[in-house]
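Closing statement on the S-adenosylmethionine sub-project.
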Amino acid sequence: MGSSYYGKFRARDKLLDSLHLRGDETVLDVGCGHGLLLIAAAKRLPRGRSIGIDLWSQVDQGNNSREATLENAKLEGVADRVEVRDGDMRKLPFPDASMDAVIANLAIHNISNREGRREAIAEIERVLKPGGQVALMDFKHVGQYAEDLKKDGIADGRASGPIFWIFPPVRVARGRKT
Ligand SMILES: C[S@@+](CC[C@H](N)C(=O)[O-])C[C@H]1O[C@@H](n2cnc3c(N)ncnc32)[C@H](O)[C@@H]1O
């Protein structure tokens, strides 16, 4: 998937800005890959934790591995507050209500079937603390993520309009657990 170099960082920063983090939260990035969101989130969490989870598919990320992502966190000076786990977003290895925010970029669409994406959204909702925020950026199925969030009682579950800084354009499904 192509995207402008700057557009990708701009979209990342806007997504993180929208969370209004205090700096002491625990944030989970599902399908973190090399850590685009994970590491940028860690920079905004001097007293918190940024946790990534991935099953390390090599399809659209070369050299995709926990080690490579941890090395990126080290190079960016945030390894002390980054944790990277192996796992599938359809069965998150985290307790209920353990995350202040769950974020994702270009990850959930990799689950090819509707039911699997539905499971991922349900897992994201499960691990969110009451009051926790969700922001899921993707280039397809975003309306579906927003619909599922809304159906499950996530407050303000909605999809943004298209963001054209990235090609194909992305949208963000977001909401807050009540
Ligand atoms: C296009 S990459 C995006 C990586 C990163 N979020 C970014 O913005 O650069 C998609 C990532 O989702 C991961 N992924 C795909 N299906 C997954 C699943 N079911 N559970 C966890 N991670 C998954 C892939 O291994 C890959 O690292």
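The CA atoms of residues 24 and 48 lie 4 Å apart. With this model delivered, the sub-project is considered complete and its resources will be redirected to Aim 3.
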